[in-house]
């Protein structure tokens, strides 16, 4: 019996180590190649130990172009502001829905669900944002469209709240003389910390990784966030690849074609903040999702 | 959604009609103030766009009156998406690039109501364009008999050349003059392999682009193409590029070369240009399309001296895909007359064209030699750090503007000779609208991306894979595309024969 258990243990460990490695190896490769000199990358390809150690890629991305640092700043600003506002809105929507005594609850729920199933489509949305709300080439373009509030997150939070906050606590608070505002801030929010942390991470990740809004709404280079910058380079590369025969004799240049090392360096710098934040939130992450899901 | 698409252009048309009416009434006295928005593909900072717009507006204010210009530069890679979005949402676009790739042909844009017809505007405001741009080129901007778009002034065709690092060619005693056929090339590659075992003799460009040295015209997407312009006889049907004998020969040869170690392995997945591979000393030779002055261009980019031998005879041909990069009037223009006036000014006014193409003097470039009409980057700047990437070659800007940065002093002379030498494809000027067979086109594109580059880079054995490729194309609807294209081609020929 013991033997069997041990074999099973080893097998499971083996499988999980393999899975871990398959996640980690490309990652290590990326970091190592970002520290390898360009010529050695082209000549010898990627390797786990830098053929010729070089900081050129980082020097180029960080020093030569202020665009990168600026993009970094914009991404941080947008992620912070967007996540904060998004969490406030989500909480304010989810908490009332979790209360059984909310009048008009069905209508409010329907209003929420409807947006999950139907939307106006790309072009009408683009028209609304650019021509009625004029967010083109502003920071709002990163914060407002698509990401500000997700119906799915509201439902996640509502489920969590209606499961883990007993009506009795709220009744007790009422008896003690707390108003609705006080109940929300002093009781509901502290109890809902795990789900709040989870949603912070998910929303933050969404904002940090978003490039679609930038693609549609930003043409001014002063407003390029880091992801938009990276994405633009990739798209330029793709364009070059798919239109090679078209470009002959046309005098068309493609600027900003990142070399291999620079691409890797930018990718490393692009995920760095998330790498730092993730472990801090991981504890809540598991807790929040598990409780929200199992008790449903 | 479909209905919506129809309503928007109709609404626009009504607005336009109203706009034309009012502007005509006013034109008699003085121009009302109007800003012409030029949407361009390339790379420019906002500051550079503003500076160039301001300089251009000064000139238009003087020459046209009450007119300003606003440049909107969109990244090349996102250009098509951005332009579609702007046009279908009704955002003002007065002048825009057209025909920049197969999915964006003039015919397609016209049928999607993205472009305005130009004939009457040209007659009234575009005399300089009509004077400067030869009829042969204008054809490429026509759908039916109506002009929708004006092709840019630049090298109009291409050859296919064999490029080699000069040091290596000298060391191996290769006389480039004698390298004319693929057998000659093979001999050279074998020599390279022997003398430089740690180098790849030949490498394709990014994404496995490795053009075969035949003067083929893909006619918007290879399925339904003219396999050899030089051998074309009147009435020859359009055929599937991948079913031709020459494609089979080429892929068989590449497979052989790859198995002999003459070609870089896994070339279809390469994300590095063969110029950078040459610069890193990894690769000795390349086969690639040639522009005017190919050796100069490559030597500049690689940083080593490169020698070139043309593999085609006659050397240069102009196919439908060389007719791209044109400029048209967007359907959301509120004042097409003014847009045409500005377009005409590009042809008529050298200072205006210079500013549009190269930026502001003293900010984005400086005069190198005013006698020779040459310019250079500002001190400390180069092609990658400049704030305004030059965009010559997309407008009827004429050949009297400054010589493009980094090109030889007599570049425009070379271009003119180049254009004279070009053999035009029988389909040159034809513009295909794939919207009838959109599903088939997408399905075929998937199949092509699966097989084409690996076959052309010698990664797959054509003996077994090519029949599968052709079969999958047939299943994806290749025949339907050819039929549709042939029909449009015949109609175009009929319309253009008289």
Automatic annotation (TrEMBL), chain A:
It is a multi-pass membrane protein. The keyword Transmembrane applies. The keyword Cell inner membrane does not apply. Keywords: Cell membrane, Membrane, Transmembrane, Transmembrane helix, Transport. It is found in: Cell membrane. Residues 72-281 form the ABC transmembrane type-1 domain. Its main location: membrane. It comes from the Bacteria. InterPro entries: MetI-like (IPR000515), MetI-like_sf (IPR035906). PANTHER family: ABC TRANSPORTER PERMEASE PROTEIN MG189-RELATED-RELATED, POLYGALACTURONAN_RHAMNOGALACTURONAN TRANSPORT SYSTEM PERMEASE PROTEIN YTCP. Belongs to the binding-protein-dependent transport system permease family. This is Aldouronate transport system permease protein.
UniProtKB/TrEMBL annotation, chain B:
It comes from the Bacteria. Residues 426-494 form the DUF3502 domain. Residues 1-27 form the signal peptide. Keywords: Signal. This is Aldouronate transport system substrate-binding protein. It comes from Murimonas intestini.
């Amino acid at each position: 019996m013991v033997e069997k258990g041990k074999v099973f243990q080893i097998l499971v460990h083996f499988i999980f180590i393999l899975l871990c490695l398959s996640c980690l190896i490309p990652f290590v490769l990326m970091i190592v190649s970002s520290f390898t000199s360009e010529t050695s990358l082209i000549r010898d390809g990627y390797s786990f130990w830098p053929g010729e150690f070089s900081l050129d890629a980082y020097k180029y991305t960080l020093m030569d172009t202020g665009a990168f640092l600026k993009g970094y700043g914009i991404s941080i600003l947008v992620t912070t502001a967007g996540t904060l506002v998004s969490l406030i809105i989500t909480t304010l929507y989810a908490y009332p829905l979790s209360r059984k005594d909310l009048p008009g609850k069905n209508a409010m729920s329907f209003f929420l669900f409807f947006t999950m199933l139907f939307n106006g489509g790309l072009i009408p949305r683009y028209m609304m944002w650019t021509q009625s709300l004029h967010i083109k080439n502003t920071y709002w373009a990163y914060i407002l469209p698509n990401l500000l509030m997700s119906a799915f997150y509201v439902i996640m939070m509502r489920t969590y709240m209606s499961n883990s906050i007993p009506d009795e606590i709220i009744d007790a608070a009422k008896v003690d003389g707390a108003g609705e505002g006080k109940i929300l801030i002093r009781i509901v929010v502290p109890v809902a910390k795990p789900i709040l942390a989870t949603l912070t991470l998910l929303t933050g990740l969404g904002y940090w990784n978003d490039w679609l809004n930038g693609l549609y709404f930003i043409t001014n280079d002063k407003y390029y966030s880091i992801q938009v910058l990276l994405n633009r380079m990739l798209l330029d590369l793709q364009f070059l690849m798919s239109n090679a025969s078209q470009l002959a004799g046309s005098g068309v240049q493609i600027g900003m074609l990142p070399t291999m090392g620079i691409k890797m360096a930018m990718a490393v710098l692009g995920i760095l903040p998330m790498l730092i934040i993730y472990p801090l939130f991981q504890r809540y992450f598991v807790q929040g999702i598990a409780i929200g899901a199992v008790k449903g | 959604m479909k209905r919506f698409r129809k309503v928007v252009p109709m609404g626009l048309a009504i607005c336009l009609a109203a706009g034309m009416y009012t502007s005509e009434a006013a034109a008699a006295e003085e121009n009302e103030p109007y800003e012409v928005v030029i949407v361009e593909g390339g790379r420019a900072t906002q500051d550079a766009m503003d500076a160039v717009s301001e300089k251009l507006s000064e000139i238009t204010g003087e020459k046209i009156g009450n007119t300003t210009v606003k440049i909107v530069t969109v990244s090349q890679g996102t250009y098509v998406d951005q332009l579609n979005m702007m046009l279908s949402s009704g955002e003002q676009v007065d002048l825009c690039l057209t025909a920049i790739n197969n999915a964006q042909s003039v015919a397609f844009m016209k049928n999607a109501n993205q472009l305005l017809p130009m004939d009457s505007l040209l007659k009234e405001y575009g005399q300089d364009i009509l004077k400067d741009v030869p009829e042969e080129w204008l054809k490429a901007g026509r759908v039916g008999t109506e002009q929708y778009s004006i092709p840019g002034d630049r090298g109009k065709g291409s050859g296919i050349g064999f490029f080699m690092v000069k040091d290596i060619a000298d060391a191996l005693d290769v006389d480039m003059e004698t390298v004319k056929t693929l057998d000659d090339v093979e001999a050279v590659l074998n020599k390279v392999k022997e003398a430089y075992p740690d180098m790849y003799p030949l490498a394709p460009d990014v994404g496995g682009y490795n053009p075969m040295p035949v003067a083929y015209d893909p006619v918007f997407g290879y399925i339904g193409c003219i396999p050899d312009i030089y051998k074309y006889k009147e009435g020859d049907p359009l055929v599937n590029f991948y079913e031709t004998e020459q494609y089979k020969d080429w892929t068989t040869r590449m497979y052989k070369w790859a198995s002999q170690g003459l070609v870089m392995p896994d070339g279809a997945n390469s994300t590095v240009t063969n110029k950078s591979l040459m610069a890193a000393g990894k690769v000795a030779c390349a086969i690639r399309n040639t522009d005017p002055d190919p050796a100069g261009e490559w030597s500049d980019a690689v940083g080593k001296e490169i020698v070139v031998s043309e593999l085609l005879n006659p050397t240069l041909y102009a196919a439908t895909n060389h007719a791209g990069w044109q400029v048209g009037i967007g359907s959301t223009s509120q004042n097409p007359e003014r847009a045409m006036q500005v377009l005409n000014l590009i042809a008529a006014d050298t200072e205006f064209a210079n500013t549009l193409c190269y930026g502001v003097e003293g900010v984005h470039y400086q005069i190198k030699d005013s006698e020779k009409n040459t310019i250079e980057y500002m001190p400390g700047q180069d092609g990658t750090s400049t704030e305004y990437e030059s965009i010559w070659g997309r407008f009827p800007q004429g050949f009297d503007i400054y010589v493009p940065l980094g090109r030889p002093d007599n570049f425009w002379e070379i271009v003119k000779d180049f254009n004279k030498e070009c053999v035009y494809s029988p389909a040159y000027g034809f513009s295909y609208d794939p919207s009838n067979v959109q599903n088939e086109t997408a399905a075929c594109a998937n199949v092509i991306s699966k097989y084409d580059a690996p076959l052309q880079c010698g990664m797959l054995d054509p003996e077994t894979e090519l029949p599968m490729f052709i079969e999958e194309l047939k299943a994806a609807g290749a025949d339907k595309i050819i039929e549709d294209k042939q029909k449009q081609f015949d109609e175009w020929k009929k319309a253009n024969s008289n």
